[in-house]
Write the structure tokens for this entry.
Amino acid sequence: MSEIRIPLGFKTAGVACGIKKNDKKDLALIVSDSLAEAAGVFTKNQVKGHSLKWTMDKVKNNKIKAVVINSGNANACIGSKGDRDAERIADITSKHAGCDKCQVLLGSTGVIGFPLPMEKIESGLYEAFSQLGSGNSKDAACAIMTTDTFPKEVSIDISLSGKKVTLYGMAKGSGMIHPNMATMIGVLLTDAFISQEMLQNALIAVVNKSFNRISVDGDTSVCDMVIILANGKAANKKITQENEDYETFVAALEKISVSLSRMLAKDGEGATKLIEIHVKNAPDNDTAHKISSSIAKSPLVKTAMFGHDANWGRILTAAGYSGAVFNQDMIDIFIGDLLVCKNGVGLSFDEDKALEILKQDEVKITVDLKMGNSEDIMWTCDFSYDYVKINSAYRT
Amino acid sequence: MSEIRIPLGFKTAGVACGIKKNDKKDLALIVSDSLAEAAGVFTKNQVKGHSLKWTMDKVKNNKIKAVVINSGNANACIGSKGDRDAERIADITSKHAGCDKCQVLLGSTGVIGFPLPMEKIESGLYEAFSQLGSGNSKDAACAIMTTDTFPKEVSIDISLSGKKVTLYGMAKGSGMIHPNMATMIGVLLTDAFISQEMLQNALIAVVNKSFNRISVDGDTSVCDMVIILANGKAANKKITQENEDYETFVAALEKISVSLSRMLAKDGEGATKLIEIHVKNAPDNDTAHKISSSIAKSPLVKTAMFGHDANWGRILTAAGYSGAVFNQDMIDIFIGDLLVCKNGVGLSFDEDKALEILKQDEVKITVDLKMGNSEDIMWTCDFSYDYVKINSAYRT
């Protein structure tokens, strides 16, 4: 997955239209040569942004030609003007792209409660269309960032019915990432030929194993989504049911989604490391997930990881208040491959070895319940001074 | 509630026995002249400390003579030695106090997974008994602290059937405070004459309006409890049912418990201010509490408060992911008495006024759902650099 390539028939652009300060890119455009099947998964927050509502509505019954995403302003909680602005962005885009406004999807991320600067966006769109190309996806990946420190994109090639098919994804975090779909936007593109129904099924299956397995601070936002466009340009045999091609496609989609998810967790606000929480041998999936999620959200676990402190008591504590039922006297906890708690009791482990593990930029915590065969994985990051710094004055 | 007085017939002491470094007090002792009725409310964490388990077991069927609480070590997750150590502390105490070991309650708070230094505790108990007095409750309040920055105690006098009755409380926080009963220990003492049943009822009613309404970081711990002892020395007419005296008693108990709870939130780890979240005009209590709790736990709201940032979008966002159902287009949000969001839409408010409000050491956030008559209050604190600092190296 080293060299990034976007699928056949897609072009992208990313420009700075002036929503963000300091000439940072803030408007991303993606256009497909032909109308694409599309699917989406959206925030579960009861409060929803205006751009998000547009996209949730349009993705259901339309083939899609273009996607416009702005960063720096969430277009949320503005009242009816927010809805009108969303429609207007779609309308302007559709005139450039030569499609119906219902064939344009939108995304907005950033501060809540301020109207979008529509003149800037309008001229930004004009510029973005002039820059559309197949080799500049990084510009688009940069333009969707808020507090992310690096753009996140990944691509992979697979073979379906003898044809080369490309899957590409870009995503942004980096605070408020939490199931489900919190302040994260993911755009997945593929030239695979696949029905809308199977595309939606694939997306839901994959999101639950990737983007919904990240937690940065437990907050979930009002504007967040993962969408996928499939324009069929690879000319593979159309996927219309669960067959071998579908499995291959889903596996590849999962691969790029997990890869993006890990990047999102690693780039959590102020993060110095990626933390993978692996709960295994649980009696069922729900138990495993309750525990992994509780540990991933615990500020005490996350600050301990920042401080290179092998404080397994906090891991056990977070498991204990997760709501899951388990046997305290059977639980084993590993930090990396170091057993620190056996059968619920702390071991006198090698602190130097622990420190060495905790100083890596990826740390794995394993919790073994010894009760069954189910497991769950969550990705999170540590909790640092910089998280507080970034979030104490974000709006101003 | 200015001058602190402990009720008739109680004596306390607080000593430094060497569990904590730097000669800090770490062993608190409370003894009642006569056997007292007792009641308790305990952590809901599935993992429970050994001292806590002792107390949960003994409080049910015994009158109580003494309470011993150590800080610096949670006596949790040690295996059977932890249970034996708890019993041994009770046994030693009972010999000093002249009672049965089942009449001794225990508490432990601090780091998880290390055995208690029993020799230090044994000699500490000896010293504590030599220092017992009725004027040194502050020593005991200091000895139960972990990362608290100040001891928390409060007392109040009331009149029951013509007799003066005193209620006293001490508590410790300060991280991991969250419903239910997380890393907090509260000890309430009264000379009221009241049946065990009514004492337990009163405690449960009051805890739900006070200690269970605090959140510092959403973590809940394995050792935490509120216990109350009532020794009857005030010689009021015994409370055995819900009558006027009971109501007076509960109101006073609530007053001291709310007072302690606010101190706990204000002294949350690294906190610079107390934040009160008031959700009003909710359709029912559950909706109100889901929203207040979600806002109180949000790291993004708490960091914004630290940064004096009137970021109401984060407040609305936290309400949105609380799981409560409400009408986004009706919600009003106040910071102090400043309306910042009306009917779900941001107002262009006076930022200088907002800054002035946010710079106070107590900030009230009000969320008006305009859907009914129910309300809920939560107390929390802001999220600062110092929270991270305190928690990134707690164990070492």
In short: Chain A touches chain B through 64 residues (CB under 8 Å). The first helix of chain A runs from residue 50 to 58. The CA atoms of residues 183 and 224 of chain A lie 5 Å apart.
